[in-house]
Write a structure and sequence with these properties.
There is one protein chain. The chain is of the alpha/beta class. It has one domain: Alpha-Beta Barrel (TIM Barrel). It is 49% helix and 11% strand. An eight-stranded parallel β-sheet has the order 2-1-8-7-6-5-4-3. Helix 1 packs across helix 2, helix 3 runs parallel beside helix 4 and helix 9 runs antiparallel to helix 10.
């Protein structure tokens, strides 16, 4: 089984600027090559950055297929399969598996607040429906559902094929608790950009981030410094990129990342409505932060 660790990069889903209803496959390929060439360790299409919740079935399949085919095994692929229903999540996961994904990632989406029993059943059903690993994604800010470290640890320990956790609550104590509960054996991934440095110190296996869409070299450089034990170098790099990281999470990631791409000459189209592009003052500030991070 392929081990996933390090920088897990999240591409946006590019839309044609003249026809926002059409996915721009050429730009998607460009983004994937740019991140892989910079040295990211995995690609994760169809997360919140990839606007998965805003895509219809055919669009979702197009992005999954084009990403997996174009990556072509150069790095692992972790496909986001979250859907409102368990059946929909399973369908997406099975499609991703048939297309050749390395693993799938899902967070519990629900109109009604789910109980732990319901969440457990959701992931048990998903994990039993595919033969590739499942990453459980905790993001209470977007779902309104907060899975405790104890619950996440128990889920990985007791549900076969649930093997990894993406923790995006923004609470570093959750990550430390996951590390303590598992004795350092549970692969957990940081999904909160501003916590990247602390998360690796807490034992994170990797960092799930959209930042490589814009500054791939700096993100990879930071991770390599961390893994080499060059703490002072890593701290200096993180100080330089931290304002940029704060900015891209200040609005929805598709909005900020697509605006940033435009500023570096990559047209990925607008975010899908009801999301709106950045206004010019915010876009100008983001351009400055990208330039500062890349110096």
């Amino acid at each position: 089984m392929t081990t996933i660790s390090g920088i897990v990069a999240y591409p946006v889903t590019p839309f044609d600027n003249r026809d926002p209803g059409r996915i721009d496959v050429a730009v998607l390929h460009l983004l994937l090559d740019r991140m892989i060439d910079a040295g990211v360790d995995a690609i994760a299409p169809l997360g919140s950055t990839g606007e998965s919740a805003y895509l219809d079935r055919n669009e979702w399949i197009t992005v999954a297929a084009e990403t997996i085919q174009h990556v072509d095994g150069r790095v692992p692929t972790v496909v986001g399969v979250s859907d409102l229903t368990t059946a929909g999540t399973v369908r997406r996961a099975q499609i991703a598996e048939r297309l050749g994904a390395t693993a799938v990632m899902a967070l519990p989406i629900s109109y009604w607040r789910l109980t732990e029993q319901e969440i457990r059943q959701h992931f048990t059903t998903l994990a039993g429906a595919v033969g590739i690993p499942v990453m459980v994604y905790n993001n209470p800010a977007t779902t309104g559902i907060d899975m405790s470290a104890e619950f996440l640890f128990d889920l990985v320990a007791t549900v076969e094929n649930v093997t990894m956790v993406k923790e995006s609550s923004g609470d570093i104590t959750r990550m430390r608790r996951l590390d303590d509960l598992s004795g350092g054996t549970l692969p957990f991934f940081n999904g909160s950009n501003p916590l990247a440095q602390e998360a690796f110190r807490a034992g994170a296996a990797g960092w799930c981030t959209a930042a490589p869409c814009l500054i791939p070299d700096r993100i990879v450089e930071f991770h390599r410094a961390i893994t080499a034990g060059k703490d002072d170098e890593a701290a200096d790099l993180f100080r330089r990129i931290r304002p940029f990281l704060d900015m891209i999470v200040s609005r929805g990631l598709p909005t900020t990342i697509k605006s940033g791409l435009r500023s570096i000459g990559v047209e990925a189209g607008p975010p899908r409505l009801p999301q709106l592009p950045l206004g010019e003052p915010e876009a100008a500030h983001l351009r400055e932060l990208i330039a500062a991070a890349c110096r």
